[in-house]
Amino acid sequence: xxxxYDYLIVGAGLFGATIAERAHRAGKSVLVIDKRNHIAGNVxxxxxVGINIHKYGAHIFHTDYEDVWKYVNKxxxxxxxxxxxxxxxxxxxxxxxxxxxxxxxxxxxxVTPEDARKHIEAERQEISHAPKNLxxxxxxxxxxxxxxxxxxxxTEKQWGRPCSELPTFIIKRLPVRFIYDNNYFDDKxxxxxxxxxxxxxxxxxxxxxxxxxTDFFERKDEYQAMxxxxxxxxxxDEYFDYKLGELEWRSLEFETxxxxxxxxxxxxxxxxxxxxxxxxxxxxxKHFEFNTSPQTVITYEYPAAYQKGSEKYYTVNNEKNxxxxxxxxxxxxxxxxxxxxxxxxEYKYYDMDDVIKKAMDLTL
Length: 364
Ligand code: FAD
Ligand code: UDP
Description:
The chain is an alpha/beta fold. It is 31% helix and 21% strand. The protein contains 13 helices and 16 strands. The chain has helices at residues 14-25, 66-72, 100-106, 113-124, 134-142, 144-159, 169-172, 197-204, 220-226, 236-239, 319-332, 343-346, 352-361; strands at residues 5-10, 30-33, 45-48, 51-54, 61-63, 86-89, 92-95, 189-191, 209-211, 227-232, 249-259, 269-272, 281-284, 296-305, 314-315, 338-340. Bound molecules: flavin-adenine dinucleotide and uridine-5'-diphosphate. Residues 87, 96, 150-151, 154-155, 158, 170-171, 173-174, 271, 273 line the site of uridine-5'-diphosphate.
């Protein structure tokens, strides 16, 4: 049977769910499939001891796009959580991102922005040319002291290679502020969907046929014949059976514990920037939602090399991988009825709002 559906959507993450919702609202017939046993992709949350657990890592919604903020608010109410992580290095606590609180913690004589600027300006002189790698970028941004305490260890654990071999753009995302403000993001809107991301995606997919535990590649030809348009949100190289080679990814491993205490670390996100521990972050999920449950749930996040069978979390956007992704993108344009969208299919380091924006702006 051909063209049973107008749209077959491979992947029930935010890209797939946004397209599905738009197409359904426009009166199109839609089938969503996902190989996992749940919807919501990497923003999936699951309740444990009355707390919503971010199963694939901490997700904080933040955006500057008015239309995206308006759109997500149709499917969830957002709380007023503001991400203000702390860093622990050598047993001492620092505020993140880099702001006046951090500078006062680093240098005893810092009280005013002028005091902080003096230290940072002096240290920044170390790099007199345009930064060529992450280490140079970090030093030219905040100086060597902060680089060594708050950036180097975290970044090398996260990416599995020296900062001197990493691209500058990774660190450009982090704000540097000469005000006492611990908000991690500069965006106008921020929050966590009340009741969890899964509930939000469930609302987006309301009235739409969804088949879980269903891998597109197990019956690719059959699925392709089922619909006029295919929206593919899985890995770009996998669609083409890796015929040009494999794209590189970083993976993560999570270890979650339920604790019989009310408040374990006093903060939703604590980053560990030292090489004395293998994890990069410890998440205490209840603090994302101001949950007052008598127990708590924490998750250790360990960066890991990607191996066949593990999850693909981060793209590794270096020259080699970007060139390979471009070659696959050229092949993708030759697939007339397939749209490749989202983090895995575009091989882009997207935030949630970028993914939704892309899906909202696509002409269906
Ligand atoms: P995904 O959520 O990965 O969805 C793709 C779906 O396709 C998956 O469900 C997968 O199972 C399915 N699929 C793949 N292949 C097949 C197949 N062959 N057949 C069927 N189904 C298939 N962004 C923020 O804005 N704020 C944050 O705080 C934030 N924190 C993050 C923390 C971590 C640790 C990570 C890794 C990312 C974070 N992000 C954050 C980014 C965010 O997760 C992504 O932007 C977003 O989830 C991408 O949505 P997507 O639909 O493109 O992909
Ligand atoms: N980073 C750091 N120290 C920290 C937190 C982040 O050096 O305590 C750097 C690190 O290089 C990381 C980048 O900032 O790869 C982006 O981190 P963020 O947590 O913002 O991104 P995510 O991992 O959530 O995509």
